Amino acid sequence: MKPFVLLATRAEEQPADEEYALFLRYTGLSADQLIRVRLEAGPMPALDLDELSGIFVGGGPFNASDPPEDKSAVQHRVEAEFARLLNEVVARDFPFLGACYGVGTVGTHLGATIDRAHSEPISVVPVTLTAAGRADPLLAAMPRTFSAFVGHKEAISALPSPAVLLASSPLCPVQMFRVGANVYATQFHPELDVDGITTRIHAYADHGYFGADELELTLAAVRRAAVSAPSLILQAFVERYTR
């Protein structure tokens, strides 16, 4: 088979390695079938889409809505690399699934309004499929409403017309959307389990996602409901696009 690629941006070793392990587990792919590229460590290599089955994007520390002067040189590089890649991905309608940072990358490419009006604290939220989501082949196995892990400082407030809204949550109107037939982005994390998000809570405790005295409350918030359905999206993506 032609491999998939995971484009990652986490600099912290433990959450970065766990993210890759979670994608391997829930996609069912082996390490030679899911190639990890750590963009925070170096430039994006040339990707020949004809030699790939699809592309995944993990979450990360970058916010598309940050002022340019607040962005590091690495973030500016990564954003430019994603802009070039998405020009080709969207034009070819190539299989792409961006988790969390996928909203920032694909949303920016579309000219979506990305701001902090619909941020969500690290927690478990109910995500509900739209009519288009219920009809989407990638989401055929998903219940109409399911629990998912979230935690993001920015989100899409206004989705341009080329995109199709697939799912929403009470505080965040755009939890998942599609461009064309094969380019997807989620605001929630389909790759996470409770152990994985616990690692991230500890790793990013001083990154402004919650207050200094809210660690235990945040840990409790991600345990208040069972989360299992979102990983079905990763499995479905691999089943649909492997070639």
Structural class: alpha/beta
Low-confidence stretches: none
Average of per-residue pLDDT values? 96
* Total discrete domains: 1
| Residue fraction in strands | 15-25%
Distance, first to last CA: 6 Å
Q: Label the overall shape.
A: globular
Give a structural overview:
The chain is of the alpha/beta class and 243 residues long. The chain has one domain: Rossmann fold (3-Layer(aba) Sandwich). The chain has seven helices and eleven strands. Strand 10 and strand 11 form a beta hairpin. The longest helix is centred in the middle third of the chain and has 20 residues. 42% of the residues are buried.
Secondary structure: elements and pairs:
Blueprint: E1 4-8, H1 13-27, E2 34-38, E3 54-57, H2 73-92, E4 96-99, H3 101-110, E5 113-115, E6 120-129, H4 131-135, E7 145-152, E8 155-158, E9 163-168, E10 176-179, E11 183-186, H5 194-203, H6 215-221, H7 231-241
Parallel strand pairs: 1-2, 1-3, 3-4, 4-11
Antiparallel strand pairs: 5-8, 6-7, 6-9, 9-10, 10-11
Helix pairs in contact: 1-5, 2-3
List keywords for this structure.
11 strands; nine-stranded mixed sheet; Rossmann fold; alpha/beta; two-stranded antiparallel ribbon; 243 residues
Compact summary:
It contains 7 helices and 11 strands. With 243 residues, it is an alpha/beta fold. The protein has a single domain (4-241), classed as Class I glutamine amidotransferase (GATase) domain (Rossmann fold), CATH 3.40.50.880.
